[in-house]
Write a structure and sequence with these properties.
Elements: H1 7-14, H2 35-46, H3 59-88, H4 94-119, H5 126-146, H6 149-169, H7 171-176
Length: about 180
C-alpha cells in the first residue's frame, strides 16, 4: 500500500497566496514578522492613548456604581454567612455550605470590581456591570417564586438590576465612560 504525502500539494496551493512559500509580502524579519505588520504595530504604538473623560461624573453613573457595589456587598455578606455557617454552624451539609459560601464570595468580586471601575469612569467596567445585572434578573425571579420573605428580596433585586441596566445604557453614562457611537 502506497503512502501519500500531501505536503507538496499544500505547498503548491499556498505558493499563490501572499506570504505563502515563494512569495512574501514585504520584507521578512527573523521572527517571521513582515514589514507591513511592523508598520501597523508602529502606528498602533504611536496612536494616542484613550483620553480620560473630562468633567464631573454624571449622577447616573454614580448611582449605577453605588447600586452595583451594594449588590456586590450583599453577595459578599451572603457568602460570608454561608461560609461561617458551614464552619461553625450545624447545616445539613457543612461541605456544601462551605463550598457555596466560597463560590458566592468569589462571585461577589465581579460586581465590586465593576462598581469601582464605574466610579473611576473606566470604560471596561460597563460590560461586567451589565453582565451582573442580566444574571441578577433570573436570580430575582427565582427568589420571587420562593415565596415568603424571599418575594421582597427578589423584587428588590429585580428593581435594582433593571435600574442599573437603564442607567448604564443611557447616553450620558456611555459618554462619561468614553464609549461613543459606532462609526
Amino acid at each position: 500500500m502506497e503512502q501519500r504525502t500531501y505536503l507538496p500539494v499544500l505547498a503548491s496551493r499556498l505558493s499563490g497566496v501572499p506570504g505563502g512559500p515563494g512569495r512574501t509580502v514585504g520584507r521578512r524579519y527573523p521572527a517571521g514578522v513582515t514589514s507591513q505588520q511592523k508598520q501597523t504595530a508602529k502606528r498602533a504604538a504611536g496612536a494616542p492613548a484613550v483620553p480620560e473623560p473630562a468633567g464631573p461624573r454624571p449622577a447616573r453613573l454614580s448611582a449605577a456604581a453605588a447600586l452595583t457595589a451594594v449588590e456586590g456587598l450583599a453577595l459578599a455578606v451572603l457568602g460570608a454567612y454561608m461560609l461561617v455557617n458551614g464552619l461553625v454552624g450545624a447545616p445539613d451539609s457543612p461541605q456544601q455550605a462551605e463550598m457555596g459560601g466560597l463560590t458566592i464570595l468569589a462571585l461577589a468580586v465581579l460586581p465590586l470590581v465593576a462598581a469601582r471601575g464605574l466610579w473611576l469612569r473606566r470604560r471596561w467596567s460597563r460590560g461586567p456591570s451589565l453582565i451582573t445585572q442580566i444574571v441578577a434578573l433570573p436570580v430575582a425571579w427565582t427568589l420571587v417564586k420562593g415565596g415568603g420573605a424571599l418575594i421582597a428580596a427578589g423584587a428588590g433585586l429585580a428593581v435594582a438590576a433593571l435600574v442599573v441596566l437603564v442607567l448604564l445604557v443611557n447616553p450620558t453614562a456611555t459618554e462619561a465612560l468614553g464609549i461613543g457611537p459606532r462609526e
